[in-house]
Write a structure and sequence with these properties.
heterodimer; A: Rossmann fold; 5 strands; 36% helix; globular; B: 409 residues; mainly alpha; Enolase-like, domain 1; Cytochrome-c3 Hydrogenase, chain B; three-stranded antiparallel sheet; 18 helices; 48% helix
Amino acid sequence: MAKGLPKSFKKSLWVFHCNSGSCNGCDIEIIAALCPRYDVERFGIKLVGTPRHADALLVTGPVTRQQAERVKLVNEQMPDPKVVIAIGNCGNTGDVFYESYNLVGPIQDVLPVDIHVIGCPPRPENIIHAVAKAWTKLETLEGK
Amino acid sequence: MSQITKTTYQLPIGPIHPALKEPVMFKFEIDGEKIIAVDVELGHVHRAIEWTGMRRNPIQIIYLAERICGICSFVHPMAYCRAVENACNIQVPERADYLRVVHGELERIASHLLWAGVAAHEIGFDTVLFLTWEMREKVLDLIEYLTGNRVTKAILMIGGVRRDIKPENIPKIKETLEYFKENYKKLSHVFLDDKTFKMRSQGCGILTYEDALRLCAVGPTTRASGVKKDVRVDQPYAAYSDLDVDYMTPDKRTGEINGDVYDRIIVRLLEVKQSIELIERAVDQMPTGDIMSEPKIPKLLNYIKKTAGEGIGRDEAPRGEVIHYIKFDGVNEQPFTWKVRASTYANILPWIPMLKGQQIADISIVAASTDPCMSCTNRVTIIDKNKKYMLDKEQLHKLSVEKTRRLMR
């Protein structure tokens, strides 16, 4: 793990959003958080188009069989230090799809999840709160 | 003399994010900048919902149906409830019919504004994305005020709706509708008169009338090609028969039908206006009375369990027609069969004639122009591990933005 985070870290946190088979509910709330009403860019939080630029990974959905490998791949492509945030009930527990044959798991079975956001879908405020928590986690890494 | 042979190359796009924030995979056969063949691979969001539904009781399925798609979280349970009502002969009270119209149309406004924002983003016009999504928050506020939730509403019940609109709620509805009427002009000006939008969308991604008929396209995609198809008019459900609905085709505004992306924008904008008027009329004409035919859920469940029969529920989602089919055997609580046909399923084949002959930079706007919703659609589970060169969403978006810039010069 990197010793001492770069200065830019404290100013801004870039997130990458990965859909592992969700119903779009959480995904539109993530976009809503980026839009003028909630406007997370004022905190320096920005959605980026590639995992290689991202510090935090937002995963939505219950991880279907086809997407499992890809979600892992996205996680591997992200540079350390990083945080993984599981958004939505189905990502955390399986929710209404829990018994489905085509699910690999809740997200924690596939990736090491740092922050869980519950709600179906969670409100944009909750998502912003989770990203703020990710900040705290990354700051504790700084001391190591 | 050496012979120059023309070769084409393959360009796979996806599954992580081609046009929307959803997994789907395209395989293009490209000749230079031109697309000559398209193949679509689906199945990334397959969650086995129908299979799961056959293990739940009819009330639990409402909430499962709601989670087929987060954007159509009203129309799926609506089609499902109508299928069960059809199968079990349950009469919906008149007031509930009007309430269903109000909630359905609110969802249509939210969905079309969402789409408008995404379309603007695809051509690199992010200002408009923020403009439309700010307006969308107003609808979400109203939806939250009426149902308690922003996205998944949990408002429907077999034989009615769960929450009433009280007289004290009406001023807030009217206020929001006024806001939309004022801002509608601004919105249509931005989308229909703007030079950038016209350049990118006119003559792009054409779906002819014949193709739309042949490939059974539904919703705004088919109406933009001039096919008059709308479940609200063809087989009016809920209270639509009292509310005077009409087909929205692009010739209502421009006098001609081209079937291109521009026409699809026109249709959706006209429908936003139509929805505002429909909600207004529905709120004014709403009769008094019950909102549920059977408020005692165990009694309702017991009745459905004892009934054998099959039913079909159709309704007009923001993206087109949704059909749910259900069959009960009269012995088990769980349905014998539950089949869902979402609107995007019918709108996937039209992608092929739309995308053929287009440039790579147009892929995202053309694909987005049918308002695809993959989480509704995925059924099959076949996918190969691909080892080929991938063009991700970022690069695709960049190409699209570059094309806009090139045209502006």
